Every structure is written in structure tokens, then in C-alpha cells.
Amino acid sequence: MVRFLFPFISLFLLSACGTTKTELPPSERLRAFEDITIKTELIFGLQKPNGDTVASTEWKDFLDREITPRFKDGLTVIDAYGQYLGATGKLYKEPSRIVLLLHHPSDSLDAAIDTIRSVYKRRFQQESVLRISTPVGVSF
Questions:
Q1: What is the rounded CA–CA span in Å between residue 65 and residue 70?
Q2: CATH code for the part of the protein at 37-75+82-133
Q3: Cβ–Cβ contacts within 10 Å for residue 70, how many?
């Protein structure tokens, strides 16, 4: 009888020795990084209401005059394509630009981001500029 139970008891005991992976909560994972900062993504549609597209020279001028002076430490611009449901319920598909900013929490930088969005909407007759801000861990 002992010989018969031995394999089952051994298997049970070995399975109890397995290690379990404990995952750290997000706040603990962020502490492992050198710096905690905010990642802000701004998504700019390039289609104007009249059907024209914001020209690359217009975009470059806007970037140079409105965004770069406010974020001199650096930024990333990504060419993208997006779609969204407009206020009238129409589905719009258009080329877009994503501007990726890394910054520390700051009322003045939040105001700068809001100004950038407002200027773009006014200049290029846009309904909105999408902003996504998330705390992230950063290590260089």
C-alpha cells in the first residue's frame, strides 16, 4: 500500500514546492525607475474642414513656433493615421501627427499644452486635439 501511495504523495509535495510569482502593484513598479514623469500624447488631425490637408510646411511652422519653444527639452513627432466620430455623427478618417512629450507634473506645462491645443484648433479649424496623459517610469 505504501508503494502505491508514494508516487501520489511525492507528486503532491513537489507541487507544493513550486514558487508563485507575485506581481508588484503599479505604484511599486514605477519606483524601480530613475524618474517618475508624465507622458503626454497629443494627437493632431491634419484634415481641414474644407477637405484640404495641413501641409507639411504648415505643420513644421506650427511645431517650430508653438510646440518646440514650450518643450525645449525634447519631443517626438510620429506620423499616424486615425479615425473618429465627429460631433455630427460622421466618421472621419484622416492623416494625423502624434506629439509625444515627457514632462514632470506642472501647472505651467499643463497650461502650455492647453495653449498648444487651442492654437492648433483655431489655426486649422479643428474640433479637437486629443490629449492623453499617463504617469510613467523613465530611465535613460
A1: 9
A2: 3.30.70
A3: 16
